[in-house]
Amino acid sequence: MMSSTRWRVPFPVPRSLLPLLTVLVPALLSAQDPLSRAFDLERRGSFAQAAEIYRGVLQKEPGEVTALLGLERSLTPINRLPELLPVVRAAIVANPSAAPVYSIGLRAYAAANLLDSLPHLVDLWARAAPGDESPFREWAASALQRRDRPMARRAYQMGRERLGKPDALAAELAQLATAEEDWPAAAHEWVGAVRQLQGYRSSATTALAMAPAAARPVILASLAMEGGPDAARIGVDLRARWGDPVGAFETLLGILPKPLPQQLDVLQAFLELTRLQSSPTYLLAQARTLEALADRWTNPPQRARFRLDAARAYATAGQPDPARRVLGQIAADPASGPAVAAGATTTLIELLVGDGKADEAAGQLEKYRSTVAVDDYLRLRRAVALRWAQSGAVARAEQMLQSDSTIEALAVRGRIRLYAGDLKGASDCWREAGPFAGTREEATDRSIWLALLQPIQPDTLVSFGLALQLLDRGDTLKAAQSFERIAAGLPPTGGGADLHLLAGRLQAAAGQVAEAERLFRTAVVKEMPGTAAAALLELGRLQLATERRAEATRTLEEMILDYPTSALVPQARRLLDQSRNAVPRI
Amino acid sequence: MRRRDLLRASSATLMTLGASGAGVLRGAWPAWLGLVDRTASPWLLLPMDDGQSDHLKAYGVTFRVLQRGGRAEWFLNHRGGSFLVPGDQATIRDAALAGVSSEPVSEGLLIDLRAQLKQGNTDAVPLEKPPKVAVYAPPNASPWDDAVTMVLNYAGIEFDKVWDAEVGSQGLKKYDWLHLHHEDFTGQYSKFFLNYSGAPWLAEMVKQNQRVAKALGYPNVPAEKKAVANEIRAFVERGGFLFAMCTATETLDLALAATGVDIAAAYADGTPIDPEAARKLDWSHALAFRDAQLELSPNVPAFSDIDGHQVNSLDRRQPLGAFKLFNFSATIDPVPTMLVQNHRDVIPDFYGLTTSFNKRTLKSSVTILADEPGAPWAKYIHGELGQGTWTFYGGHDPEDPQHQIGDPPTDLSLHPHSPGYRLILNNVLFPAAKKRELKT
Prior knowledge:
- The structure holds 2 protein chains of 2 kinds.
- Chain A is an all-alpha fold.
- In chain A, 72% of the residues lie in helices and 0% in strands.
- Chain A contains 33 helices and no strands.
- Chain A is elongated, with a radius of gyration of 38 Å.
- By secondary structure, chain B is of the alpha+beta class.
- The N and C termini of chain B lie far apart (74 Å).
């Protein structure tokens, strides 16, 4: 079908000239630049035709680089790259200073498997471009494409000798050594690369960080032997990634550059590394880095900000003393600013509550009430109240929360009632508070306790409250023993089985395996199928964790067969698979 | 007494009275038996359609029925290839522990089922004796590195490991079923040196193989692996069932075809590949392939053009698609039908050192069980040799399509319905089919 497109002429053409145009236009088109024509043919996939045109151009101008590149592109998809060889030789003669000619030549010789000729070609190129690393780099690249690592190394080493620079091609040699897991060589070369160009430092760290754990001491020792600030910085970064951020920070302080702006850059880069994990070690390193930044920062509000973040990091890392020290520095700095001051106050009160100093915390809270945001004030007041209740001052705690009608306060009151042994009161408060008070973890915790309280008949059990106080104060073993005593005094179906299970879990968490097992077995009561299934699951888990596979298998089979409708059966099956080695234990 | 205590006590009494009235003391039966009405279900059906909670373990339950001397049947093309097993205590217990769904089948229902199976493309194949299973792997091989050992462990099917010493000393005679996976029977260590040269595990693999070759009296590893390949061929000829995946498929046949021809690179046996090797190969000795083009360069990470996907060749690598299982007649072709039983017809593909088989290289006697529509390769093939059969399944791990060395192992409890893994287990179970079914 003919195209319906009409060609419009922009100006009127006399009829007499039309025949002339029909001859001239095709002639003009055919005189189109041959390189453009060849490129069009390439785009259409007519590689053989394109190759012929490029060849034609190169016959007239053997050193024409564009044509040579085009010929290479055209011959590659039709697997005729070796035909490029004579053309390349002619191009080298015609245009001996053009680097692309040699580069193309390397690929063509490699495709033709004339590997023994490559050094000579590289030599020619190196003479044409003295001091240039490219000939050796390209030779190695073509070797690596063929996975010929020995030849690649030969290329790099020859380059290093010819160029007369001991660190030439260091980054490439470093990557080769890394691929071959030659860690001392990799460390040496990466240091050389970084000495040439600081931008390689992150590549060096990333590459060396992948080393297996067994190789890490070797790498650190190699870096120490290298000496110098570059090697030391890489060592610092690696130690930070490998779980020793505090040690890395100590080293870093000793190798900070002199100019202050550079010190700040280095410390900020290190701060990012400390944020890789949120374990206490990393938080501690984070805190110390933030302090170091604050000490060097000239802008007061930002300085205070760094100190506040440092204090919070110390507190979360379980280091209250340095946290208090830094908060004191904020308080002493009049240029801290109101927002930072408020943040410092809340952090200080949280620390005091965490330390069990509820009275002091309450005092600070009232003193700085006007500087702290309302939500934070209410939250801290509830935390103080809870802490009082944990230490036995239940009435005082309840009085503090009298005017707080939020659901969060209701949830806290429920806990306080439980500390007092008022099981009914606690259950009522929690039911009223609902599932949306506090965080999801707190809501789940309340649900667990509510389920535990449900079968217990007495509305009041002071010993229960005391046991819970022990638990929340961190005395797990005593709490477990207390719960066991309470359980012994309750019927199995009246909370006894559940409390035995709880006591077992606490003993297991405290590492008391034999005690935990005894309690789990006691909790297996047929009349309480839900609790029995959970107890057998915990028992099986404990047996598996202590490598008693045969026992674990028997326990888990018993659980699955005796309590087939338990919601915990899928978990039990998974543990059973692990005990039978049917699935990998990860 | 509180109301709730009265109710609790009353219900216990009622339960006891009711149970004795029915003639079955329910309180005396284990809880898991209560889920199945034993008096009306001498049989259990393990459905293998989407109603099954663990397809892979269902094979294990069936296998163990046979191990206990029981009878089972495979209902081909019925509800995804379901199994009929006895409704005895041991089987019910096994299925409950494994989490395998089962449905009670009375004698009356069974008669109806059999009538149903006679219509349409379905059939019932009796399963008799479970095969003795062996997996060919070096002694230090991890079970998590081989899809077949992983699924055998998961399904709870016992197997022995054998390697060159056992194969060389006629050890295969004890077994009915043999699996091969990673082994490079050309003796070139799967050409791993191209990507992993310097890796400690590769150095250890080379040392181990060289030690064994020397101990067995062979001049080099390629010679020893060829001898092993021939022993495996003899095993199949005598009536053994061979199931091979990944590199083992292609290299086994290359080794068999290369009797007296050097097809191993110099790093493996000290001498370069015979430049005339391709012409000299004797394909009549191979199981599945013919007229393949050998890869003569030791620097190219491929063995031949048998593999359609060429995963390690940057310029020849083909993308993954999906493969489709063929439909066979259950009554006329029970063996291929058994091998393709599945609850899915189309399965996503997965790479291996040998991923697929170019159809051009297949012998005419080979049965294609699955291929990628529109592509020139097959994925899953089967054939016979002498008294025995072989099945080749391309790829490394059906649930790890882009597996790399060092990747974490596949946890099959996360893939209990894997259609790719079901094909492996079809191969494990089908040798148990009654002899007349196997002679088609």
